[in-house]
């Protein structure tokens, strides 16, 4: 993967007179409005927006058809090949290529430019963005180019196994947090679309992302001491004010991908999944009316994952039609819906899981405290009071099995706006237990994406080595943390 260089030059035609020349040629011919290098912090906002568009994209990203649909939070009443586990290879190629070329490469460039200017705070932010981009890719595909990915002299980078990638990513989060704890230099507020240049929040994000990455691989090695150190340090997200989220704008083309596709793009086949609606109804959960719109009859009705192969869609006999199945609620197709990289609510659920499993101190009692904090934070995000819901009998737990089931279920519900993350946690925890899509091309929820076709053709030797590590380039090939 070649590192992109961000150089902007202005060429002038210079006429030299035979009778003389100027001694301050360089100063006179430097245009202050066209710098030879783009300032590092100006790269940040573009990279953040591109990353969130890729992560949350409905049709062309990892958020919709191959994210929230596979997590069975959403469903479709037409055009549902992906729901039946027949993904578009072009989208898979684009997610890989765009993440490397625009997210990871720009983050790497930010670090180089910031380091040259002695701005260690901005350098750390670039490192966080780069680490997150690599984690995103390894969680989608498995083994990926990592150690050789940013070397411009290597056109066919080798793939690293997942353990190597995760170890590197976790180390990058650690380095970034250390740099931010004693860093120097400012970040232009208008260039930072997550935190407006607030380095204290970036420090919390680095530690929170590290906690999430450690939990992701917690089934592969002992992560207890590292998790406990993060909890003891206390410098992680403390409220929704610490959410890493991008504020989208009110109009196309700078609105949230949900709005761009469903509302502005009139792709009204996206609906709520009955796995979600039935669970929310059973829990007497008021988020149902935020997540789902009423159908033509004034009711909220979901559809299960699948159909569309032997059974055509839309389908009047089954009631799976545009008018009968509830669409996505207005809040979640608002153009200014935040694009979330990580939310405080998810950190709370991960801490609850860690406490319930004994990875961090506190046991079941502390796990329930974190669990309730996660629910309350998500209710606040949805602009709903949580007091009555939290008081319901049966919402809490008193043993590990019940705790893990309920923590997983509530995290899944809370990730309604984060399709990639919802599917990823379903793959890791299998909670809640979901049935594969009806009439699916395979008989299980996918574990990963196929590798891009470009890698097969242009980097085949290294691609084949990666396939050997996986045991096959299939949607069902398991990743190490599953």
From TrEMBL:
Q: Which InterPro entries match?
A: SusD-like_2 (IPR041662), TPR-like_helical_dom_sf (IPR011990)
Identify the keywords attached in UniProt to this record, alphabetized.
Signal
Note one Pfam family from the annotation.
Answer: SusD-like_2
Q: Which residues form the signal peptide?
A: 1-23
Protein name stated in the entry: Starch-binding associating with outer membrane
């Amino acid at each position: 993967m070649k590192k992109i260089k961000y150089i902007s030059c202005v060429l002038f035609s210079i006429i030299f007179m035979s009778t003389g020349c100027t001694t301050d040629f360089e100063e006179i011919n430097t245009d202050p409005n066209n710098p030879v290098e783009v300032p590092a912090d100006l790269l940040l906002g573009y990279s953040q927006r591109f990353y969130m568009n890729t992560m949350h994209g409905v049709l062309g990203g990892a958020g919709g058809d191959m994210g929230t649909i596979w997590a069975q939070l959403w469903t479709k009443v037409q055009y549902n090949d992906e729901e039946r586990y027949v993904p578009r290879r072009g989208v898979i190629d684009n997610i890989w290529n765009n993440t490397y070329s625009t997210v990871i490469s720009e983050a790497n460039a930010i670090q180089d430019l910031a380091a040259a200017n002695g701005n260690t705070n901005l350098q750390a932010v670039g490192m966080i963005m780069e680490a997150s981009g690599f984690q995103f890719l390894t969680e989608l595909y498995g083994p990926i180019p990592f150690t050789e990915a940013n070397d411009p002299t290597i056109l066919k980078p080798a793939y690293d196994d997942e353990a190597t990638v995760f170890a590197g990513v976790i180390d990058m989060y650690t380095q970034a947090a250390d740099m931010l704890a004693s860093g120097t230099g400012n970040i232009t507020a208008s260039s930072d679309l997550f935190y407006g240049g607030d380095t204290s929040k970036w420090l919390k994000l680095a530690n929170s992302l590290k906690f999430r990455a450690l939990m992701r691989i917690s089934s592969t090695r002992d992560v207890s001491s590292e998790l406990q150190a993060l909890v003891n340090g206390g410098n992680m997200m403390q409220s929704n004010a610490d959410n890493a989220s991008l504020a989208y704008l009110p109009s196309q083309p700078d609105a949230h991908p949900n709005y761009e596709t469903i509302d502005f793009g009139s792709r009204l086949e996206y609906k709520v999944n009955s796995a979600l609606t039935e669970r929310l109804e059973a829990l007497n959960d008021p988020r149902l009316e935020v997540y789902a719109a009423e159908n033509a009859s004034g009711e909220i009705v979901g559809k299960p994952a699948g159909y569309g192969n032997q059974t055509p869609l839309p389908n009047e006999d089954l009631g799976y039609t545009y008018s009968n199945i509830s669409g996505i609620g207005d809040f979640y197709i608002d153009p200014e819906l935040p694009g979330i990289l990580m939310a405080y609510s998810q950190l709370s659920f991960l801490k609850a899981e860690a406490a319930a499993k004994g990875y961090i101190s506190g046991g079941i009692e502390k796990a329930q405290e974190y669990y309730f904090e996660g629910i309350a934070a998500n209710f606040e995000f949805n602009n709903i009071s949580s007091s009555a819901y939290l008081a319901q009998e049966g919402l809490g737990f008193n043993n590990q099995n019940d705790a893990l089931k309920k923590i997983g279920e509530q995290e899944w519900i809370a990730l309604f706006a984060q399709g990639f993350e919802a599917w990823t946690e379903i793959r890791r925890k299998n909670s809640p237990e979901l049935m594969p899509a009806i009439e699916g091309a395979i008989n299980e929820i996918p574990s990963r994406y196929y590798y891009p076709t470009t890698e097969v053709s242009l980097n085949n030797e290294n691609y084949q080595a990666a396939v050997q590590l996986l045991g096959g380039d299939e949607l069902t090939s398991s990743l190490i943390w599953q």
